[in-house]
Amino acid sequence: MGMRAAIVVGATGLTGASLVKQLCENEEYNSVTVIARRKLDFVHPKLEVKIREFNRLEESDIEFANELYCCLGTTIKKAGSKEAFEKVDFEYPLYIASLAKKRGIPHMLVITAMGANENSAFYYNRVKGKLEHDLIELSLQRLSIIRPSLLVGNRDEFRFGEKSGEAVLKVAKPFLVGPLKRSRAIEASQVAKAMIVIALHGKKQPVTIYPSQELAVMDFPVVKEEGSSEDQLFNWDKRRSSDDMEKLNRDVVINRDKFKIEETVVDKDVHFKQRKKDDE
Hints:
Layout: E1 4-9, H1 14-25, E2 29-36, E3 47-51, E4 67-70, H2 76-79, H3 82-102, E5 108-111, H4 123-137, E6 143-147, E7 151-152, H5 160-172, E8 186-187, H6 188-201, E9 207-211, H7 212-215, H8 230-233, H9 236-241, E10 250-252, E11 261-263
Parallel strand pairs: 1-2, 1-4, 2-3, 4-5, 5-6, 6-9, 7-8
Antiparallel strand pairs: 10-11
Helix pairs in contact: 1-6, 3-4
C-alpha cells in the first residue's frame, strides 16, 4: 500500500462522492480526509470525515496531504441567490486553496467548467473563470484545473435543467464529432478517475488545464509487460490523428507573461490504455 494522503472538499456531490470511494480503493492512498458540512453515507477504514462550515475553516483544519481535491459546486436555484452561489463556487474554493498553500500542500485539483471564462457572457462560466484566474494568481505549487462538460450520473437530488441537458446531449451525441466532441456529456465517475490519474501521473508543472474530451479517455497506466512494444500498449497514430488531441501541449496565455499554462495530459514516458468510446 502507498503512503499518499488526500483531502477532499465537496465530497457529498456527484463527482466528489465517486472520488472519495475511488481514492479509498486506490492502493496508492492510505489516508483520505473529507471536509464536509454533513456526514457521508460511505464509510471506509482509510476515511476520516471532518464536519465543518466552510466559512469557518481554520488553517489547523487542513492537515498536510499530497493532494487537495476540490469538487465544490452548486446551482443558483439550490443556493437561493447569486451571492450564495458565489460563496460555494468561488469564495470557498479560493479560501480553501489559500489555507492549503499555507499548509504546504503541493497539489490542488479543482473542478470548474468546460466554458470557464472570466469574460464570458454567461454568469456561471464567468464565475468559474474568475475562480480559475484567482487560483492562478495565488501561485500554488501545482494547480490542475478540471473542465468537464455536463456531468451525468445518479444524483441524490433531481435537477431538471441538467436532466434535460443530459437527454438532449444523449440524442445529439452521434453528431458531436470533431471540435464538437468536447461538448459531450461525461460520467462523473470518469471525471473522478481522471483526477486521480492526473494526481498520480500528470505532468509536473505549475498550472495545467484538462478539457473534457481529454478527461473522457483517461485511464490508469498499463503495466508494460516484457516483450511488449510501445505501439502495442498505445496506438499513438490513432491518438495523434484525433481532433480531440490537436491541442496537446498547446500554450495558453492568461493575460500575463508570468504564467504559462499547458493543456496536456501526462508525462510522455507514461503509457495509458485507451478507454473504448461509444462511437468506435
